[in-house]
Amino acid sequence: MQKKSACPARQRASFPEHEKKQPWLSLLLEAYLVTDQGISESIQREEKQGRQLACAQGCAACCKSHETIPVYPLELMAMSWYCVEIIDGELRDKLKHQLRNLENLNSCPFLIDNSCSLHVIRPMACRNFNVFNTQCSEGEDAFYTRRADVLTPIKKYNDEAFNIMLPFYGIKNKTERRKMIKNGGMHQLAKVMRDLNWQTLADKMDAFG
Ligand code: SF4
Ligand code: SF4
């Protein structure tokens, strides 16, 4: 469980038994691999220019200050699956408590003890947000305070990640997928993570056991 690592994973996460039952999960994990490859390449590019990634394990001011993190329906399904079927023990109890007490939280509901409780399945928006030089201070949103220190992801990787995800939304035709990515139609599917009713996820976790 962690927020970020200096070098994003280049290996695809794998849940063979779950992927057999839920083919949509494989799509998302493929898309995340491509996203992470793009981030890794863009970080390396910046490091060659002498810049140093500030993001590190346990650094999580961004999970508190960002209130409008977008999530796509496929990502939401994966987050729900991961919380219901994978997270266990004390972390599960803490997470359910947070999901039921959003009004008392000053962070993303999935941030527990300054780490992301669903790190392996965290949304593209979280993967893409990386900051150079200095770690963000509490309450700081570097996107507004020092945009020049925020990583600009390489577009072709994010486009390819969307391209992989689109069949889940019934858009299988290659030309249609390209068109939707080009005109930004994909973004209309996004919801704001903190606006969602996470209480129902806590209930699902209870029902699962
Ligand atoms: S974006 Fe800022 S707060 Fe988040 S991990 Fe990176 S340096 Fe830390
Ligand atoms: S899902 Fe929440 S806790 Fe996890 S990285 Fe994103 S903002 Fe942080």
Model description:
49% of the residues lie in helices and 4% in strands. It is mainly α and 209 residues long. It has one domain (16-208). It has a two-stranded antiparallel ribbon with strand order 1-4. It binds iron/sulfur cluster (2 copies). One iron/sulfur cluster (SF4) is lined by residues 3, 63, 69, 108, 110-111, 116, 122-123, 126.
In short:
The protein is mainly alpha-helical. It has helices spanning 16-21, 23-48, 61-65, 73-86, 89-100, 124-128, 142-145, 155-165, 174-182, 199-208; strands at 70-71, 111-112, 115-116, 191-192. It has one domain (16-208).
Indicate the topology:
Elements: H1 16-21, H2 23-48, H3 61-65, E1 70-71, H4 73-86, H5 89-100, E2 111-112, E3 115-116, H6 124-128, H7 142-145, H8 155-165, H9 174-182, E4 191-192, H10 199-208
The structure holds iron/sulfur cluster (SF4) (2 copies).
One iron/sulfur cluster (SF4) is lined by residues 3-4, 54-55, 59-62, 129-131, 135-136, 142.
Keywords:
single chain, 209 residues, mainly alpha, two-stranded antiparallel ribbon, two-stranded antiparallel sheet, 49% helix, binds iron/sulfur cluster
Instruction: Give the class from helix and strand content and strand pairing.
Output: mainly alpha
**Cross-sheet strand order for the largest sheet:** 1-4
Order of helices and strands: HHHEHHEEHHHHEH
User: Main beta sheet, described?
Assistant: 2 strands, antiparallel
How many helices in DSSP terms?
Answer: 10
Considering DSSP H and I runs of 4 or more, what fraction of the residues is helical?
40-55%
> How many domain regions?
1
Taken from the alpha-carbon principal axes, the silhouette is globular
Rg from Cα? 17 Å
Q: What small-molecule ligands were found?
A: iron/sulfur cluster
User: What's the total number of strands?
Assistant: 4
Strand content: under 5%
From the N-terminal CA to the C-terminal CA, the straight-line distance is 21 Å
Q: Mean pLDDT, nearest integer?
A: 93
Low-confidence stretches: none
